[in-house]
Amino acid sequence: MSRIGKQPVALPNGVTATLSGQTIEVKGPKATKAFTATDDVTITIEDGLITVTPRGKSKRARQQWGMTRTVISNLVHGANETFKKELEIRGVGYRAQMAGNVLKLNLGLSHDVDFAVPEGVTVTAPKPTELVVEGTDKQLVGQVAANIRDWRRPEPYKGKGIRYKDEYIFQKEGKKK
Length: 177
Prior knowledge:
Layout: H1 3-6, E1 9-10, E2 16-20, E3 23-27, E4 32-36, E5 41-46, E6 49-54, H2 59-80, E7 83-90, E8 95-99, E9 102-106, E10 113-116, E11 121-127, E12 130-135, H3 138-149, E13 161-164
Antiparallel strand pairs: 1-6, 2-3, 3-4, 5-6, 7-12, 7-13, 8-9, 9-10, 11-12
């Protein structure tokens, strides 16, 4: 039994969901999103609760059960609120700034990095060493944050690089004489 799949998804005030076949469409104040589930699960909407149940006992049906419920939960959350990832930049001379729809990163490379922010995501730089990635699609927000972080991952000796706000970097000890 899927512990996640068993839990119903509650619809908050202002969010509505409609089901047509295997496609569920969620409308809210922030966004309208749709998701098409596989034929291995059954989706039902009753009394403001969305429930997902597997069709059969196959391994694939059980896998899709929890995953489908989580995707629907993220759709409902994204229609009502935005997802947010915070990044911090550490290193001498490392900084970031927004110029229109392009994020300009100075990361100690021989050139500046121009990162084009995709549609559906907003990136802000409240300080030159902080970045906030926001959007209604959890997967897209996480992917954009990971792509920005990949330009200069934190290194284990001094900790320089781009890291998530709550990320802990294990510091290695350097050479000893």
